[in-house]
Amino acid sequence: MNTRELTYRSDYGLYGAIVGVIGIAGMGFSAVNRIEQIRYRNIRLDFLPYPWPNVILFGIGLFLLLLTIHNLLKTKAFNSNQKKIVLGDQSFRFTRVEGYKGVLTEVNYHTITAVDINTESDEEEINIHAPSMGLKYAFDADDFLSKSDYQSFVEEIKRKADQATIKISS
Q: In the beta sheet, which residues pair with residue 96?
C-alpha cells in the first residue's frame, strides 16, 4: 500500500488572542469603574440607569473571552491527531473537529461526488463532497505546511476521485 503524509496546521491566531485580551480588559474596566452612560459618536444611551452600562460592558467582555476559549479548544482538537493528512491508494485520512474532540476521519475516493476548487490568490480552498458520509470537507491552503503540499493534495484528489465532478473557480 502506497501512502503519503502531508502536514497541516491550525495555529492559535493573533486576532483570537487580541479579542481575548479585549474581553478581559472590558470585564475588568466594568468591574472597577462606574459607567454612568454609554456614548459612541452620536449614539447615546442615557436612558440606562447606573448598573446597566457596566453589566452590558461586562457581558460583551465575557462573550469575547468565551469566544476566545471556544476557538482555542477547537484549534487544540484540530491539532490533536498528529496534524497529518495521510493519502492512500483507496482513501485519505485526516482529523476533523466534532464538538471539542479531534476525530480521525477516512474518506474513500470512490465516495466523493463533487470537488470544488477555489483558486483565488488570497483564499485558496478545496471543498470535497462525500454525501455517503454525510459531510462536506473543506481544506484551506493556509492550513498546509507549504504551498506545494496543498497543490499535491489537490492534484491527488483530482486524479483519484474519478467519479467526482470537479469545478474550478477563480
A: 103
Cβ pair 139, 128 in contact under 8 A: yes
C-alpha cell at 146: 507549504
Residue 30 parent element (H or E): helix 14-32
Cα-flanking dihedrals φ and ψ of residue 66, to 5°?
-65, -35
Give pLDDT tens digits for 56-103: 889 999 999 999 999 888 888 887 777 788 899 999 988 888 888 888
**Nearest residue to 154 (alpha-carbon basis) of 140, 136, 133:** 140
pTM: predicted TM-score of the whole model, two decimal places: 0.69
Specify the residue for cell string 449614539. Answer: 43
What 3-state DSSP class applies to 39?
strand
